Structures are given as C-alpha cells and as structure tokens.
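Listing S7. Sequence submitted for prediction.
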Amino acid sequence: MTSSIRLPEETIIQLIPMHICVHTDGRIRSVGPTLQKLRPGTKLVGRLLTDIFEIRRPRTFDSLEQLLSEDGQKLSLYFKDEPRTQLKGVALPIEDPKGSLIALSFGISVVEAVEDFNLTIGDFSATDLAVEMLYLVEAKSAVMDELRRLNLRLQGAKLAAEEQAFTDSLTGLKNRRAMNVVLSQLIEARSPFSILHLDLDFFKAVNDTFGHAAGDHVLQHVAKVLLEETRKDDVIVRCGGDEFVMILNGLTQPERLRDLSHRIIDRLNKPAIYEGNECRISGSIGVATSTSYAQPDSDVMLRDADNALYQSKSDGRARATFAVAG
C-alpha cells in the first residue's frame, strides 16, 4: 500500500536540502538548494527529470510515473552532463500537488562531491551522516596539514644540519667533509676538474703579532677573495688552519688556471687591515688537473697538488706550481 506525505516546501528544504519534487508528468516542480548548487546557472525547474538525469537503477520500469509512485522506491541517478556525479535517491509520493518527492544523497562519493562543488556542512541536513563524515574529513585534513608543516620543518632542520656539517663556521666556506663528497661525485661522473691548493705564507706571524682575532679576520678576508675570484659553481674549501682548496669543475686549461692563480696571489699580497694594523701575508698555490691522469683519484690529486704547493714555497712563495702526475 502506498502512502503520501504533506509537508510545506520550507520544511522539505530544511529537512532535505538535496531533493527534487516531480509532477506526475515527470517535470521538475522544485529542487533543493544543495542540488541546485551542483548545477549553478542551470534552470532545473520545469524540465523533465529524464532530461537532467540518467536513471541507472532500477534498470527497467514501465513508466516514470509508475516508478515514482512506488513508496520508498530506491533510485540510482547520474547527471547527463559533466561532471556526471552519481546520486542515490528514495522516491516518496506526495499529494499536493500530486507527484513525487525524491530525497537524494551522494553516498560514498560525498568527499569528492564536497571538493568538486565547494560544499559545506550547511549544504546538508543536520541529521545527514555525511555531516559526520565531513567532520572526520576536516579533522583528517587538519591533521595532514599539521603533519605536512611538521615534515617541512623537519626537512628544513635536516638541511640546516647537513649544511652546518659541511660548512666551516669561521669563513662560511665548505669544509673537508664537503670536499671529499664533491671530489667523489666529480670522479664518479667522470667530469674534468682542477684542484688549486692554497696555503698562506706568514700567517703564523700575523697570529703571533696581532693575536688570533686578527688571524680570524685574515682568514675571512682570504675566503672573500677566493669567492670573488672563482665562479659561482666552484667549490671553495677551508681544509685546515690556513689551507684552502678550490675545486673547479670543467676548468682544466693551464693558461686559465695560471691566470686565476696569479689574480688570487696578487690580491693576497695586499695587506688586510685589522684595527688599523697591516696584516701582511701571501699565498702559495699547487695545481692538479684531472685530465693529467689516466684514472683520476682524489687522494692522489690532493697529494700531488700539495707537493706542487710546497714546491711553490721552496721556489720563493707567492707563486703557483703545476703538479706532475705520478
């Protein structure tokens, strides 16, 4: 036995914001505000239900009037135009005017629908289980957002720690650990490169005469000179007290390396001023290029550059010497 209901339209809207009222001829008499929100700018009232929706279930029926007149008839509907959102519905007969009330819901696709149509809790009935789901989704989103922010902070802290582990605290240059990593990467990639090993001359005299603060100032001055004279992608390392290594990727031409070494030496020959005192140093350089070796090895190249450096010191300091590959 079929039953019918009598409810003011305002009550229906409040209780079922996603509904359709259909005349017996199949034309839409009214729609709930949430359903209309799914098709903004599209006039739904007055159109045939079957012009708007494809009825998937039940799969067969004699007529739309007969289908909708059955009390509690369960429906599965799809919009005919894009996006083809699936809706589930229950049809109930109404008397004034005679027709059917179809209460609709999104079913398990409610989360996607909320995102697709910018729906809020206010678009659902207060008793709709979708509201509970939305609360859960919002809570999950808040937790995920916080986890993403925490992950970003952790990644930032990790990068900062790694950068600190590879950085000389006094000069801001790379340290020996970073040097070893860079050299390993270049050799593994078979990239041509050169090593310039610089040792400061007369640095101990600066420390002994003007104190360690003056020595620190000189080291920072040297770091500034090296950064200014090399390229952005070159790696400058403070590998000892007053020793520096420049790793020059792709630069192996002797004349260019000699010009670079002479520019650095000339600038270091000019005294660094600390508290009105002239801190005089110079620099001796040893050069080793990967192209001089059949199979480059970082330890061998560093050793040869170091030997060439001390040859520069033996020859009178403030000069550059190219290593002879052993």
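Caption to Listing S7: primary sequence and predicted structure tokens for the chain studied. The mean pLDDT is 86. The longest strand covers residues 86-94.
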